[in-house]
Specification:
Blueprint: H1 4-14, H2 20-33, H3 37-43, H4 49-60, H5 74-77, H6 82-88, E1 90-96, E2 99-104, H7 110-120, E3 123-128, H8 131-141, E4 145-147, E5 150-152, H9 179-193, H10 198-210
Parallel strand pairs: 2-3
Antiparallel strand pairs: 1-2, 4-5
Amino acid sequence: MQTTRKKIGELLIEEGLINQMRLSSALGQQRQWGGRIASILINMGIIDEKTIAHTLGKKLNTHVEPLENIEVPDEVLNMVKHDMATKYCILPINYKNKVLTVAMSDPTDLKTIDDLSFAIGVKIKPLLAIESSINDAIAEHYKGIRYGGRVHKVDTKALPDTMEITRNEMPHADKSNPPETIARALSKLLLEKGIITEEELERKMNDFGRD
């Protein structure tokens, strides 16, 4: 079976968008550092992502899926962990009749599709989308609070205007609770309340460490 990455290169050569020498250079980088060949070509400045997307759309007789205003049900989003979505640059969109529809920058990438299908245990239906749009959508839809790799989105509309932590919920400082324990307990409470995200907490801790 031919690899999908080679197919992309061949398609771009057929369209006169790159030459064999540039493809070979990109393949060399891929062997050394890994990654998707399309992303490597983009990062090398050889071609832009929109050209790749529209070329694939033309070859596959499909359209480029817009993701700006797409709504993803929580149960669908939670079928794919954040790290997997980031690794493969895919966004789960819909699940119906045991088929998971995902947006990806290269719907001909059979290896990624097979890996996803094996990991999740369902059939994968790919849709074509621009890579940066997928990355933006991943950041938007997975911006909830993560517990053990599972994503839980916070519905900000359902939150009250002010969030209050009661005195009984606050950890108390005494000899059995040193400051480090109090800090960890308070951080956990803030995360559970949905007041801050893990990313915000990590940023603040890094800022504190530099002070």
